[in-house]
Amino acid sequence: MLSQLIANGIAVGCLYALVATGLSLIYRTTRILHVAHGAAYTVGAYLLFLFFIELQLPIVPAVVISLVLVGVFGVLMNCAVFEPLERIKAPHMIALLSSLGIYTITVNFVAMIFGNETKRLIPGIERTYHFGDIILNRMQLYQIITVFIVFPILFYLLKYTTWGRQLRAVCDNPKLALVMGINVQMIRYSVFIVGSILAGGAAMLSALDAGMDPYVGMPVFLNGAVAMIIGGVGTFGGAAAGGFFIALLQSLVVFQFSGRWIDAVTFSVLILFLVFRPEGIFGVRKRIEEGGG
Amino acid sequence: MSYLLHILVMINIYAILALSLNIAVGYTGLISLCHAAFYGIGAYITTLIMINVGLSFFPALLFAAIGSLILGLIISLPSLRVRGDFFILSTLGFQIIVFVILYNWTGLTRGAFGIAGIPRPEIFGWQIITLRDFFILTQIIAMICAFLIYLLMNSPFGRALKSIREDEVAALALGKNVLKFKTQSFLIAAVFATIPGALFATYMRYIDPSSFTLMESIFILSIIIIGGTGNIKGPVMGAIFLVMLPEFLRFLQIPDSIAANMRQVIYGFLMILVLRFRPQGIWGEYKFQ
């Protein structure tokens, strides 16, 4: 029973890790706590619904087209809202509240088109696989495989490519990066693309497994933000680890108490971390408001 | 006529909510996303005391205010230790915790079923039953609240809060105890939020947790972002504007199935536009920093 719960926790943790890593990329580069990351999640799930169910495309092209369009959505958000704010040097608080506005618009727009009710992409029960006494369904397996493919690639890109080095430079000090001739604007666009694709991809995996409704983005953003803070704002790996930590904790809460108290426990943990260890599990000791370094 | 009176009552309730949130957001610079939690605590404690103990409206409201004060202390102790984005995230966390408690503590709050049959308020022998009475009551209370907040915010205390909002380090250097002032401001906002809660509960005669969600907190915040922060006029005009707006949409014959979503989309657009082009809000005077 316990090993099964841990396995479920890891599968959910894969989704949280994807979301939290995207959020962390955006937060560290732009210093915006990007609430509309949840909107990208909702958009990802519903694009897949549009292409896979409504337009009857096969699953692989449907996923590819949806991922590309989620990236475009990221560009649109940055182009329409965050770049104009950056040009007038608006405080980060305004960017956060505008991001909340984007979330409200997107989610309700999706609800106007597709309806407020829960939708499923694949009817019926998924095929399951047995590993000893652990049972995983096909989608949970895909979630774990995705993480094993995506994270090494992302790690490589961040660590060894020019883009990654420039991105980390912008994270450390945007002004200095600009002086050194790095195209900070391009880096900002690129993190919105990559972050939105990570969130949208996670949304598609989750939607194929359990379906979705337009409001699923907010709890996912919140879990991602909690994961990012618990893992430590200073590192990208920390956000991913935080995602697994949160998911395992939540599956243990379900085991010990009941599913109804998940949110209360998650946010109690967040508040404990904000008070006692604001740098997160893996972070360096530093006030988090000053940004990850 | 009763339709109009209902809208006026709702405007009064939201005006008090916006005015009270404005103490924290507009005067002190603390952007809080847990105002619906205090609103809900006000509604629930007033209701439970009126039904179970049999006290009348104002004594029950007093208990609600004390409850809200305690909750405010619990929230502000950890939240005020962090600044900016993380203060927002922390208050948001508490908003969700309070909602989960209201929703799941079924023994006390009856959870999703809500509490029905809340008694009407009676004030010094004045039985408040008709819509007209409710309008008069909420109007008087809203005006008293606005007046009290105006006095408080133009007192030396209010000026100290403004100095913290403009430059925290400078206020600290002038010997102001910044943490103490922030806590007091947050608690005053929390206590004022119980009044609309109690009015809402006795007006509707039925409450359930779905009235006190995160979306409600966001809505209250958007009232003062759009209406304006840092003065009395901004939140009041914002409440009038945002409560009336969906009623105008009703005349545009938008189908009911999408009307609620349509309204939210408009709020979102307004919020982004106001933040971009007029960060102090339409009628406000404080720009977010």
Would you give an account of this structure?
The complex is a heterodimer of chains A (293) and B (289). Chain A is mainly α and 293 residues long. Chain A contains 11 helices and 2 strands. In chain A, strands 1-2 form a two-stranded antiparallel sheet. The longest helix of chain A has 29 residues, at 2-30. Chain A is globular and about 55 Å long. Chain B has 289 residues and is mainly α. Chain B has 12 helices and 4 strands, in the order αααααβββααααβααα. In chain B, the strands form 2 sheets. A two-stranded antiparallel ribbon of chain B has the order 1-4. In chain B, α1 (2-28) packs antiparallel against α9. The longest helix of chain B is centred in the first third of the chain and has 27 residues, at 2-28. At the A-B interface, α3, α4, α9 and α11 of A face α4, α10 and α12 of B.
Low-confidence stretches of chain B: none
Number of helices of chain B: 12
Q: Mean of the pLDDT scores of chain A?
A: 87
Classification by helices and strands of chain B: mainly alpha
What spatial form of chain B do the alpha-carbon principal axes imply?
globular
Largest interface: A-B, 43 and 43 residues
Number of strands of chain B: 4
Largest sheet of chain B, described in full? 2 strands, antiparallel
Quaternary organisation: heterodimer
* Unreliable stretches of chain A: none
How is the largest sheet of chain B built, in terms of strand order? 1-4
Structural class of chain A: mainly alpha
Distance between the amino and carboxyl termini of chain B: 43 Å
What is the residue-averaged pLDDT of chain B? Answer: 88
What Rg of chain B, in angstroms, do the CA atoms define?
18 Å
Strands of the widest sheet of chain A, in order across it, are 1-2
Helix and strand pattern of chain B:
HHHHHEEEHHHHEHHH
Report the β-strand fraction of chain A as a percent range.
under 5%
Q: Helical residue percent of chain A?
A: over 70%
SSE series of chain A: HHHHEEHHHHHHH
